[in-house]
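Data deposition worksheet. Section B asks for the primary sequence of the deposited chain exactly as it was used as input, without tags or linkers unless they were present during the calculation. Section C holds the resulting structure in token form. Section D is free text for depositor observations; keep each observation to a single sentence. Incomplete worksheets are returned to the depositor.
Section A, Depositor: J.P.
Section B:
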Amino acid sequence: MKDFSSLVELLGLLLSDPRYSILFALLVAASVSDCRNYKIPNWLTFGGSAFALIYSALIPFSPQLGFGWSLGGFSLGLSLMLPLYLLGMMGAGDVKLMAMVGAFLGMTHTLYALLFVFVSGGLAALVFALWHNALLRMAGNLKLTLTALLFSAMGGLRPQMTPLGNDSVGKLPYAVSITLGTTAFLIANQLGYA
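Section C:
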């Protein structure tokens, strides 16, 4: 019964505070765009981030959870995803999308949402590899990549994530994982599990 009332509260929150409704709509739009052409438009990520920052400044959750809270979430989402982009493991649109999510959620919730996103992304990669009969190739690519990173770190070299001559398993539209992970976190948080 508690779970049902928590879900009703979540639906009420979506209706009473446009922040989460807009976040969900932006995430769905980003996922559709990423699935269609592997790109997330800048107008979506920058516009969503600007909305979240301005809205939090004008209508904060509380006096402590205003613009600084939103800016902190934006910065955390950006800084935790940026290394993956620099290593060539993620697109710039995915990094900007996670920064936008951070602007909506604040620092603490962004950290938890990111954990959900990584789990969602890992599961999506596993399903993708199984669907394309490429699980062994993906495991081999992961082994080569981790070995290269280890030797780079031991040699004091800058890690390179360039292809090592192995066949790619394929591209995964990571905006879908960001959407699923963020949504799963918000539901788990509302139910008291996160």
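Section D:
The chain has a mean pLDDT of 83.
The radius of gyration is 18 Å.
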